[in-house]
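Readers of this paper often ask what the protein records in our data store actually look like. The remainder of this section carries one protein's record, kept here as part of the documentation.

:::
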Amino acid sequence: MAPKGQEQNKIEDLINPVAYKSNLQALNFLRNFVAVVAGIVVGICGVVGWHGFIYHFLAQLSCVVAMFLKGCTNPTSYFATWNNLLFFGVFSSTTLLSYILFWMIFYNVCHVF
Protein backbone atom coordinates (compact mmCIF):
# COMPACT_ATOMS: atom_id res chain seq x y z
CA MET A 1 0.00 0.00 0.00
CA ALA A 2 1.42 3.36 -1.04
CA PRO A 3 1.74 6.25 1.43
CA LYS A 4 -0.98 8.87 1.32
CA GLY A 5 1.24 11.49 -0.33
CA GLN A 6 1.97 9.19 -3.26
CA GLU A 7 -1.74 8.42 -3.76
CA GLN A 8 -2.44 12.16 -3.96
CA ASN A 9 0.23 12.57 -6.62
CA LYS A 10 -1.37 9.81 -8.69
CA ILE A 11 -4.76 11.54 -8.56
CA GLU A 12 -3.22 14.87 -9.55
CA ASP A 13 -1.45 13.20 -12.47
CA LEU A 14 -4.81 12.02 -13.81
CA ILE A 15 -6.24 15.56 -14.06
CA ASN A 16 -6.16 17.01 -17.57
CA PRO A 17 -4.88 20.60 -17.13
CA VAL A 18 -6.71 21.93 -20.20
CA ALA A 19 -10.06 20.47 -19.12
CA TYR A 20 -9.49 21.59 -15.52
CA LYS A 21 -8.77 25.15 -16.65
CA SER A 22 -11.86 25.10 -18.87
CA ASN A 23 -14.02 23.94 -15.96
CA LEU A 24 -12.70 26.71 -13.72
CA GLN A 25 -13.31 29.30 -16.46
CA ALA A 26 -16.88 28.08 -16.88
CA LEU A 27 -17.45 28.29 -13.13
CA ASN A 28 -15.89 31.76 -13.02
CA PHE A 29 -18.12 32.95 -15.88
CA LEU A 30 -21.19 31.57 -14.11
CA ARG A 31 -20.23 33.27 -10.84
CA ASN A 32 -19.64 36.63 -12.59
CA PHE A 33 -22.93 36.39 -14.48
CA VAL A 34 -24.84 35.54 -11.30
CA ALA A 35 -23.12 38.40 -9.46
CA VAL A 36 -24.25 40.89 -12.13
CA VAL A 37 -27.83 39.59 -12.16
CA ALA A 38 -27.99 39.52 -8.35
CA GLY A 39 -26.62 43.07 -8.18
CA ILE A 40 -29.32 44.25 -10.59
CA VAL A 41 -32.08 42.52 -8.63
CA VAL A 42 -30.87 43.75 -5.25
CA GLY A 43 -30.47 47.29 -6.60
CA ILE A 44 -33.99 47.33 -8.01
CA CYS A 45 -35.39 45.95 -4.74
CA GLY A 46 -33.73 48.81 -2.86
CA VAL A 47 -31.59 46.87 -0.43
CA VAL A 48 -29.12 49.11 1.39
CA GLY A 49 -26.29 48.52 3.83
CA TRP A 50 -24.48 45.34 4.71
CA HIS A 51 -27.61 43.26 4.12
CA GLY A 52 -26.90 43.37 0.40
CA PHE A 53 -23.83 41.21 0.83
CA ILE A 54 -25.97 38.43 2.27
CA TYR A 55 -27.74 38.28 -1.09
CA HIS A 56 -24.40 38.13 -2.87
CA PHE A 57 -23.35 35.06 -0.93
CA LEU A 58 -26.77 33.46 -1.41
CA ALA A 59 -26.47 34.07 -5.14
CA GLN A 60 -23.00 32.52 -5.16
CA LEU A 61 -24.39 29.53 -3.27
CA SER A 62 -26.99 29.19 -6.01
CA CYS A 63 -24.09 28.70 -8.45
CA VAL A 64 -23.22 25.47 -6.66
CA VAL A 65 -26.84 24.34 -6.95
CA ALA A 66 -26.85 25.27 -10.65
CA MET A 67 -23.70 23.24 -11.26
CA PHE A 68 -25.30 20.22 -9.58
CA LEU A 69 -28.44 20.62 -11.70
CA LYS A 70 -26.33 20.93 -14.83
CA GLY A 71 -24.81 17.55 -14.19
CA CYS A 72 -21.87 18.04 -11.87
CA THR A 73 -23.15 15.54 -9.30
CA ASN A 74 -19.61 14.28 -8.74
CA PRO A 75 -17.45 17.42 -8.44
CA THR A 76 -14.22 15.46 -8.07
CA SER A 77 -14.64 14.41 -11.71
CA TYR A 78 -14.52 18.04 -12.86
CA PHE A 79 -12.60 19.85 -10.09
CA ALA A 80 -9.63 18.85 -7.96
CA THR A 81 -11.51 19.30 -4.67
CA TRP A 82 -14.93 20.26 -3.36
CA ASN A 83 -13.46 23.59 -2.26
CA ASN A 84 -12.96 24.61 -5.88
CA LEU A 85 -16.64 24.16 -6.60
CA LEU A 86 -17.80 25.82 -3.39
CA PHE A 87 -15.39 28.73 -3.04
CA PHE A 88 -13.58 29.36 -6.34
CA GLY A 89 -14.25 32.98 -7.31
CA VAL A 90 -16.67 33.80 -4.49
CA PHE A 91 -14.33 36.33 -2.92
CA SER A 92 -12.58 37.40 -6.12
CA SER A 93 -12.42 41.09 -6.87
CA THR A 94 -14.19 40.60 -10.19
CA THR A 95 -17.34 39.05 -8.76
CA LEU A 96 -17.54 41.28 -5.69
CA LEU A 97 -16.89 44.50 -7.57
CA SER A 98 -19.26 43.57 -10.38
CA TYR A 99 -21.95 42.85 -7.82
CA ILE A 100 -21.38 46.17 -6.05
CA LEU A 101 -21.23 48.12 -9.33
CA PHE A 102 -24.54 46.83 -10.66
CA TRP A 103 -26.14 47.02 -7.22
CA MET A 104 -25.26 50.72 -6.92
CA ILE A 105 -26.11 51.59 -10.53
CA PHE A 106 -29.58 50.06 -10.40
CA TYR A 107 -30.26 51.36 -6.91
CA ASN A 108 -29.46 54.88 -8.07
CA VAL A 109 -31.44 54.56 -11.30
CA CYS A 110 -34.54 53.21 -9.54
CA HIS A 111 -34.51 55.02 -6.21
CA VAL A 112 -32.43 58.19 -6.50
CA PHE A 113 -32.96 59.64 -9.98
